[in-house]
Every structure is written in C-alpha cells, then in structure tokens.
Write a structure and sequence with these properties.
The protein is mostly helical. Helices cover 81% and strands 0% of the residues.
Length: 64
C-alpha cells in the first residue's frame, strides 16, 4: 500500500463534511411534513374536482 493512511483520512474528512452539511430530519419533522403534504394534495384534488364539475356543466350547454 503506497498511499499509507491517506485513503482513511480522506474518507473520514468526507464523512465529516457530509454530516456537517446534511442535517438529518427528526421523526417529528417528517411527520409534520407528511401531514402538510397530505393537506396540500387534498386541496389540489378538491380544486381539480371543482374544475372538472364546472367544465362538465359548462360543456353540456355548449354541445347541441
């Protein structure tokens, strides 16, 4: 092994950079994010259904 412990040192430095720059989400944050995303999706679905219903009622009068 000609490089000595340089590989090990580099791996340790890289791991330290990853841990420093990438904070991990706590379980509570993950749960809150899922709830928020679910609420947003419900609102989007509601808007899509309303739009579809409006188009259906508007299109029926135009088709003759």
């Amino acid at each position: 092994m000609t490089r000595g412990n340089q590989r090990e040192t580099d791996r340790a430095r890289a791991q330290a950079r990853v841990e420093k720059n990438a904070p991990k989400e706590s379980q509570g944050d993950l749960t809150k994010r899922r709830e928020r995303d679910a609420q947003i999706m419900k609102e989007k679905q509601k808007q899509a259904l309303e739009k579809k219903a409006a188009e259906a009622s508007g299109d029926s009068s135009k088709k003759k």
